[in-house]
Amino acid sequence: MRRMIxxxxxxxxxxxxxxxxxxIEDTTVVIPVIGRFAGLPPSIWRTDLFIANPYSPVATVTAxxxxxxxxxxxxxxTIQPFSTLSLPDVVLNTFGLTTAAGELELSCPSGIExxxxxxxxxxxxxxxxxxxxxxxxxxLGIESFVYGLSGINGNRCNVGVANPNDTAVSLQxxxxxxxxxxxxxxxxxxxxxxxxxxxxxxxxxxxxxxxxNVTVYFTTAxxxxxxxxxIVRNDSGDPIFLFGTGPNV
Length: 249
Known about the structure:
Layout: H1 2-15, E1 26-38, E2 44-53, E3 59-67, E4 73-79, E5 83-87, H2 90-93, E6 100-121, E7 128-133, E8 135-136, E9 143-149, E10 155-162, E11 169-176, E12 182-191, E13 196-199, H3 202-205, E14 214-219, E15 226-233, E16 239-243
Antiparallel strand pairs: 1-2, 1-6, 1-8, 2-5, 2-6, 3-4, 3-6, 6-7, 9-14, 10-13, 10-15, 11-12, 11-14, 15-16
């Protein structure tokens, strides 16, 4: 009987699909935007950066900060095996810039993970922040699908997309309501190498009626992109960051 039970367990385990955790690491990891810039006075937005080396070799990381309207800044970082690196106010303390924003690309031959924390310091209502995951370039696709967006009930919504490639891309943005009706569509948007585009308060910016349960599609026929959204509370300023997926790719 015992043999029969063990045989059944082995057969069931062999038939079951392998479970795996979500993987976002890569030899090249993209964070669509980091920054250090003024908000509503006297607040200022800053960025903390966290990088993890989940492997046994020492990680030598090349950090390329593609400053919007400025020169690319590069730093080399070293992380010990199975260790992490914390870089507070990274734009100022690591790259030496008091005011700047842009895409961040982190490269390491053995692979790494990373995330950023963009926070508002100095606001009269206190500090608030949002976490932005770095996603491996290999995991990005030509579609970026962000859903469940809201511009009502005390919310405003910002949407954006980053081009993590060495060449320009041509994008399409389409915004749909919860019933898949197209509210806005625009093709032929050119986005330069390692640049990002952001629509702050997207409903107001694009002249759309504010509503709930909206989806944004960023698509390109060429190379991977990183689409995102940030839903912000008007009363507290508290933001939630959402990254795009590629269900139709």
